[in-house]
Amino acid sequence: MVQAYILIQTEVGRARDVAATITDIAGVVRVDAVTGPYDVVVLTEAHTVDELGNMIVSKVQLVPGITRTLTCSVVRL
């Protein structure tokens, strides 16, 4: 299993809508609204890196209200 955190910036006032929409995407483990430079943090998982990338590009980034994402892959040290 491959996991990644997606840090999301949203349009002003859209964090709640974005978080609610992302919750229903397959592969999303957890969604949290946060304070700071990002508005929503999402924990995702998939079987492969390619599957994870496809989910991020074809589903998460297309959610209305998102202005920017940053994906941070989880590594085991």
Automatic annotation (TrEMBL):
Residues 6-75 form the Transcription regulator AsnC/Lrp ligand binding domain. It comes from Rugosimonospora africana. SUPFAM superfamilies: Dimeric alpha+beta barrel. It comes from the Bacteria. This is AsnC family transcriptional regulator. Pfam families: AsnC_trans_reg (PF01037).
